[in-house]
Design goal:
Number of strands: 0
Shape: flat
Strand content: under 5%
Distance between the termini: 40 Å
């Protein structure tokens, strides 16, 4: 399959997923990570959160990422998620598939 056909196929797949309001792997992973971190914070499970961070950082470094940078990114996420509220922007294109002037 040539690149043009592959790109068209991927675009069609993304468009179909958008119409179906189907989350992708990254959407699920983002929400799951937020939930896990917030739950550990809310339950005062600092040691468990540190174990989780160590495991995630190890897995990232095994892939070739810098250990200190990986640790810093994880720390930044914990700080961001600690503040409460959802850190996610609403998906306007999913809420209003025909444009933002449409009623839900």
């Amino acid at each position: 399959m040539n690149r043009k056909v592959a790109r068209q196929r991927q675009k069609a797949l993304r468009d179909a997923n958008r119409r179906a309001k189907r989350p992708d792997r990254d959407d699920v992973a983002r929400v799951a990570l937020f939930w896990l971190i917030r739950r550990a914070i809310d339950k005062g499970q600092q040691m468990e959160l540190e174990k989780f961070q160590n495991k995630i950082v190890t897995m990232l470094t095994d892939q070739g990422f810098d250990e200190r940078e990986s640790d810093a990114v994880f720390d930044d996420l914990v700080d961001k998620y600690r503040t409460g509220g959802s850190p996610f922007r609403r998906k306007i294109h999913l809420i209003y598939p025909d444009g933002p002037d449409q009623e839900v």
